[in-house]
Write a structure and sequence with these properties.
alpha/beta, five-stranded parallel β-sheet, 15% strand
């Protein structure tokens, strides 16, 4: 007996239509600001943890996660528990974690920046010193959710950057913890793990409490309360990004099997109802074929209700003139994930200006990038690939400028500084520079 086709409503757009810019903008529109009730609740949690430390953190964890812990110290997992999780998972899962970690580490080692200097003719030395952040906080969704890949993608580049201490927070509602997530923490080199979550965990990382150390940067995904809290503590600490829903754009010349493309679109649509999956092709018949595959295959998915809602609300099939036109549409979207499922992706690549991660060719599904290819899966969403980049080693390193004037350089630069400072009426600046000039004149 065959599976009945799904009644999913997919938007069809023609990029040559007069109303395409307006319709495409409407399709891409996403409001990421949380409602006033969420913002008010999060603001109160942040203030309570900031002012009362461990006491407030424990109260919120007991209330929201039903924790029986009597102290925050009990919420920190002993190292033995983390190592036990690594030993407890099936051998194939451990092997997959270790292989993925090795690939992610190898890729990110290519990103490591180094300090540099150069000496000018008069002996003045200029340069840049690279140092890692002292401590990073990693938020990981908890409970029934199991996202070991998130642990690897955030912790490994931090460790490659040289961060001495990575603090992971993961909620354990009702005491429920994923061994796979803890095993990933062990493999990735996470230093400490606290079973706390929500806005209260973000507050503890941002401000520090008696038991949870203050960090320099918070990374990792979370729900609307976590995202709102991250926004509110920005400036007190650094952030990776405040991400919107997951998204994918597939550019296809019509020669890839329609079922492959349908499943690639599902790979993002199954995340949540707000995820976005868009197919762009110059072949109208291929768009029809993919739509037929979607209707036929959707009922076979475990998360078919979520994927169906996502495709109906924010999915689209877009007809373009040719692949160059497809690249123009892509650059308007600046997608988080972009598949170039075409015969010669290298020829199309120079036309792509805005995308978080680019998957080249017919045999490179976005899904492998989520787990084990090596590049980071923490990517800019909601059009922010126009000005931002994937998470990487550089996000966990700082740059300090080095300036070491020789006596002769102090004269040359002092004179320039004096003129410019007096032009800004900042005479103390000018006189500070002039003292070095006068000293060298004798």
């Amino acid at each position: 007996m065959s599976t009945p086709e799904a009644a999913v409503s997919l938007r069809r757009l023609d990029a040559d239509a007069v109303d395409f810019p307006a319709r495409f903008a409407e399709l891409l529109a996403w409001e990421s600001v949380s409602d006033p009730a969420v913002q008010s609740a999060v603001a109160d949690i942040l203030q309570q943890v900031r002012s009362r430390g461990d006491a407030a953190l424990l109260e919120f964890t007991q209330r929201f996660d039903r924790s029986p812990a009597a102290t925050v110290a009990e919420l920190e997992l002993p190292r033995a528990r983390i190592e036990a999780a690594l030993a407890a998972i099936p051998a194939d899962q451990r092997d997959a974690l270790e292989q993925a970690t090795a690939r992610i580490r190898s890729y990110h080692e290519h990103q490591r920046q180094t300090s540099w200097r150069y000496t000018e003719a008069d002996g003045t030395v200029l340069g840049q010193q690279i140092t890692p952040l002292d401590r990073v906080g990693l938020y990981v969704p908890g409970g029934k959710a199991s996202y070991p890949s998130s642990v690897l993608m955030n912790a490994v580049p931090a460790k490659v950057a040289g961060v001495p201490e990575v603090i992971m927070v993961v909620p354990a509602p009702g005491g429920e913890l994923s061994d796979l997530v803890l095993a990933a923490a062990a493999v990735a080199g996470v230093d400490r793990v606290f079973t706390i979550g929500g806005a209260q965990a973000v507050a503890a990382l941002a401000y520090g409490t008696e038991s949870v150390p203050k960090v320099d940067k918070i990374v990792g995904p979370g729900n609307i309360y976590v995202a709102t809290a991250k926004r509110m503590v920005f400036g007190e600490v650094g952030l990776d990004m405040v991400a919107g829903p997951s998204e994918i754009m597939v550019v296809c010349d019509g020669q890839t099997p329609a079922d492959w493309i349908a499943m690639d679109l599902f790979s993002q649509a199954e995340h949540d109802e707000d995820a976005q999956s868009v197919l762009v092709s110059p072949d109208a018949g291929f768009l029809d074929a993919v739509e037929a595959s979607i209707r036929r295959l959707l009922p076979t998915l475990e998360r078919r209700d979520i994927a169906g809602a996502s495709l109906s609300r924010r999915g689209a099939l877009i007809k373009v003139r040719d692949l160059a036109h497809a690249a123009e549409v892509c650059n308007r979207m600046a997608p988080e994930h972009l598949e170039l499922s075409v015969a010669n992706p290298d020829a199309l690549l120079p036309l792509i200006r805005h995308a978080g991660a680019i998957f080249m060719g017919r045999h490179t599904p976005e899904a492998i990038g989520d787990y084990c290819a090596g590049p980071n899966h923490v990517l800019p969403t909601s059009g922010t690939a126009r000005f931002s980049s994937p998470l990487g080693v550089y996000d966990f390193q700082k740059r300090s400028s080095i300036i070491h004037c020789s006596p002769a350089g102090a004269v040359t630069l002092g004179r320039l500084a004096s003129v410019l400072a007096r032009g800004e009426s900042l005479t103390a600046h000018a006189r500070s520079a002039e003292l070095r000039v006068e000293a060298e004149r004798g």
